[in-house]
Write a structure and sequence with these properties.
The structure holds 2 protein chains of 2 kinds.
Chain A (H helix, E strand, L loop, with lengths): L1 E8 L6 H12 L12 E6 L5 H16 L5 E7 L1
Antiparallel strand pairs in A: 1-2, 1-3
Chain B lengths: L1 E6 L6 H10 L3 E6 L10 E4 L19 H11 L3 E5 L1 H8 L6 E3 L7 E9 L15 E8 L3 E3 L2 H9 L3 E6 L18 E5 L5 E4 L17 H12 L8
Parallel strand pairs in B: 1-2, 1-3, 3-4, 4-11
Antiparallel strand pairs in B: 5-8, 6-7, 6-9, 9-10, 10-11
Classes of the chains: A alpha+beta, B alpha/beta.
Chain lengths: 79, 236
C-alpha cells in the first residue's frame, strides 16, 4: 500500500510562495489563474493491506505531526 | 543559577546562549536532545538554529525529542523557558506557545539588526527592561512571520501576552519596521501562565558592546531577577 498526503496552506494564511509563483506565471503570459497554493506532497510506503487501519493511523499522524492544523490543511489518500 | 541550553542536531546558537549567560555572571550548560532529564535547572533556553534541518516544518521534529518531554514537564511546573528563533518555532510546534511561525512575507532570509518595543513589563522576561527603551537586536530567519487565528490573537491581547513588537528607531509600530510580515508586528509572546516565552530576534547575540549592542542583556537580566526573587519554579 501507499499513502499519498497533500499538505497545503490554509486559505486564511498568507502564502507568499503561492503569490510569487502566480506572479511569475502571469509574467510568462499565463492568464486566467485565480490563485496558486504551494504545499508539500508526501508519499509513504506501507506494509499490510488494511486500508482503513492505515487511514486511521496516518490521519492521526497528519493531525499531530505531518501537518500543523493551525496553518495547514491536508488530504490523505491510501491506495 | 544554572541555565540549561538545549542542543538539537543543527542547533547553531546554543554556544552563543551559553556564552551570553556566562558573560552576564551565571552558569549555563548544554543539554543534549536525547537526554530525558534536564538536571539542575533554573531556566531552559531553547536556542536558535535549524533543528533537524528544518525538515517538514521548522521545529516540527525537535518537539518529539526526549528532552522536550522534560521541558514540557518543567514548564508545566512553572519553570522559566525561553525560546529564541528556532527555539520559538519549537515551542509553538510543541504547543507550549500559541500560534505558528510561517515563511517571511518577502520569501527572503533576513539577517539584520531590528528595533524592538517591549509591549509589557509584566513578565519574567521583560520586567527589567527600562521603560520606553527600544531594544536594538539582530534577527536571522526565513520563517519568522508570526501567525495566529483571530481568536488566539484576541486572547493574546486580552491577556497581555504580546511581549515584543517590531518597531522603528523611535518606537513606532510601522509596516516598514516589520521584517517578516508578522501579525501586529509581533516579535515575541509568552504563554498565559507567563513562564514560557519565545521571540524571533536574538538577544543572546546582543549582550556586549563589542557586538554592536548590549540591549539583549535586559531580557536576561529580567530572567535573573525573576529567578533571584524565586517567583518561578526550578527543577533539580
Amino acid at each position: 500500500m501507499k499513502a499519498k498526503i497533500i499538505i497545503t496552506p490554509k486559505k486564511a494564511v498568507v502564502d507568499p510562495q503561492g503569490i510569487t509563483v502566480l506572479k511569475a506565471l502571469e509574467h510568462m503570459g499565463h492568464t486566467g489563474i485565480k490563485a496558486v497554493h504551494v504545499g508539500k506532497f508526501l508519499e509513504i510506503e506501507l506494509d499490510g493491506t488494511d486500508k482503513e487501519a492505515a487511514r486511521q493511523a496516518l490521519d492521526s499522524a497528519c493531525h499531530k505531526f505531518l501537518s500543523n492544523p493551525l496553518i495547514e490543511d491536508y488530504k490523505l489518500e491510501i491506495e | 543559577m544554572n541555565f540549561s541550553v538545549l542542543q538539537f542536531p543543527a542547533s547553531n546558537c546554543d554556544q552563543d546562549a551559553v556564552h551570553a549567560v556566562r558573560l552576564l555572571g551565571h552558569s549555563a550548560r548544554l543539554v543534549w536532545h536525547k537526554d530525558a532529564s534536564l538536571g539542575d535547572t533554573a531556566c531552559v533556553i531553547v536556542p536558535g538554529g535549524f533543528s533537524y534541518g528544518d525538515y517538514l516544518r521548522c521545529g516540527a521534529i525537535a518537539r518529539f525529542s526526549p528532552v522536550m518531554q522534560a521541558v514540557k514537564q518543567f514548564a508545566d511546573n512553572g519553570g522559566l523557558v525561553l525560546g529564541i528563533c528556532n527555539g520559538f518555532q519549537v515551542l509553538t510546534e510543541a504547543g507550549l506557545l500559541p500560534g505558528a511561525l510561517i515563511r517571511n512575507r518577502d520569501l527572503q532570509f533576513h539577517c539584520e539588526n531590528i528595533f524592538l518595543k517591549t509591549a509589557t513589563n509584566d513578565s519574567p522576561f521583560t520586567s527589567r527592561i527600562p521603560a520606553g527603551k527600544i531594544l536594538r537586536v539582530p534577527i536571522a530567519h526565513g520563517e519568522g512571520c508570526y501567525f495566529a487565528d483571530e481568536e488566539t490573537l484576541a486572547k493574546l491581547k486580552a491577556n497581555n501576552q504580546i511581549l515584543w513588537q517590531y518597531c522603528d528607531a523611535t518606537g513606532n509600530l510601522t509596516d516598514t519596521a516589520n521584517p517578516n510580515g508578522a501579525l501586529q508586528n509581533i516579535a515575541g509572546i509568552c504563554n498565559e501562565k507567563r513562564n514560557v516565552a519565545g521571540l524571533m530576534p536574538h538577544p543572546e547575540r546582543a549582550c556586549e558592546p563589542l557586538l554592536g549592542s548590549d540591549d539583549g542583556k535586559w531580557i536576561f537580566e529580567s530572567i535573573f531577577t525573576a529567578l533571584k526573587n524565586k517567583t518561578v519554579a526550578q527543577a533539580v
